[in-house]
Amino acid sequence: MADTYCPDCKRATEVVFDHSAGDTVCSECGLVLEAHSIDETSEWRTFANESGEKDPVRVGGPNNPLLADGGLSTVISKPNGSTGEYLSSSVSRWQNRGSNPDRSLMQAFKTIAIMADRLGLVATIKDRANEIYKKVEDQKPLRGRNQDAILAACLYIACRQEDKPRTVKEICSVANGATKKEIGRAKEFIVKQLEVEMGQSMEMGTIHAGDFLRRFCSHLGMTNQAVKAAQEAVQKSEELDVRRSPISIAAAVIYIITQLSDDKKLLKDISLATGVAEGTIRNSYKDLYSYAARIVPSWLAKEEDLGQLCNP
User: Fold this and answer.
1) Is pLDDT at 41 greater than 70 in this prediction?
2) Which of 9, 38, 258, 307 has its CA at 20 to 30 Å from residue 56's CA atom?
3) SS3 state of residue 118
4) DSSP of 168-207
5) H or E element in which residue 82 lies
6) Do 231 and 261 meet the contact criterion of CB atoms below 8 Å apart?
7) What is the rounded average pLDDT of the residues 280-293?
8) CA 217/CA 250 separation, integer angstroms
9) Are strands 2-6 and 11-18 parallel, antiparallel or unpaired?
């Protein structure tokens, strides 16, 4: 608020600035002294990636340190989607003569971003995948290799390193036709190349059954009580010497818990939700069956209630 002269009150009075309407209003009588005023002061806003940075930049996208030009180069697009006009224009021909060393990188980063968005991954995982691809691409040319498998493998490794693992089957579902076998080979190639660069073994991050459980339960539409019981059971199963993959253990635990709860799920539905074959779930279930009394929460089922579990 500030002091100014009000012609209605006939004296100096305090005024209030209504920034949404651009009005200057007398606080005593409510008279609008000035309407639709324009704020001529500078409008500085921070567009930096990190909120802690004090960078009052007003234009342009975020800088990408993985690209030679920072990702701030200018590209002339097609006018009105007309390919003929675009190819015939002198400006576009001049642009095509120049070689952009970041063109292939930008396309790779775009593909990684699309895959990450389809899987609902956070930006930190996407950025880590971009870094992994840039390191491998700088160290050894990737010509002749399955590019889709390489990009999918980068995303798989990034998920592992950020402690948000995804199954190879989930990665494969967004990998533009790359198979699980191709992604597996690409992953081994990338790990080998990065280990040579670092001179030491590459840390991939340990995966646990609990890393997949909540997502699998969500796919199955399980109740909160069943999800809580499954989480407790998976946590206790880590203390056991069951030599099965974490994904298989998660699927088997879900099968056990749903058998004991009111919200039963078919084995084929669990297989579809987890990506684990029905036979693998059965075999994992057999391994966990003898430990059911130890891993199933007592509040869900008493020891005598475990008899309703099917004996494998």
Assistant:
1) no
2) 38
3) helix
4) HHHHHTTSTT--HHHHHHHHHHHHHHHHHHHTSPPP----
5) none
6) no
7) 89
8) 10
9) antiparallel
> Counting Cβ atoms within 10 Å, is residue 268 exposed (0-12), middle (13-18) or buried (19+)?
exposed
* Residue 15 β-bridge partners: 2, 26
Q: Provide the 10 A C-beta neighbour count for residue 108.
A: 21
Q: Which string of b and e fits 199-226 if b means at least 16 CB within 10 Å? A: eeebeeeebbbbbbbebbbeebebeeeb
**Residue 291, phi then psi, degrees to nearest 5:** -105, 10
Q: Which candidate, 252, 262, 250, places its Cα nearest to that of 222?
A: 262
Mean local confidence (pLDDT), 10-34: 78
Q: How far apart are CA 206 and CA 228, in angstroms?
A: 23
Token pair of 264 as six digits: 């039963």
Residue 238 has pLDDT above 60, yes or no: yes
Q: How many residues can be counted in the chain?
A: 312
- pLDDT at 161 > cutoff 70: yes
Distance CA(16)–CA(24), nearest Å, equals 6
What is the C-alpha to C-alpha distance for residues 216 and 258, in angstroms, rounded to an integer? 13
Backbone angles phi, psi at 282, to 5 degrees: -60, -45
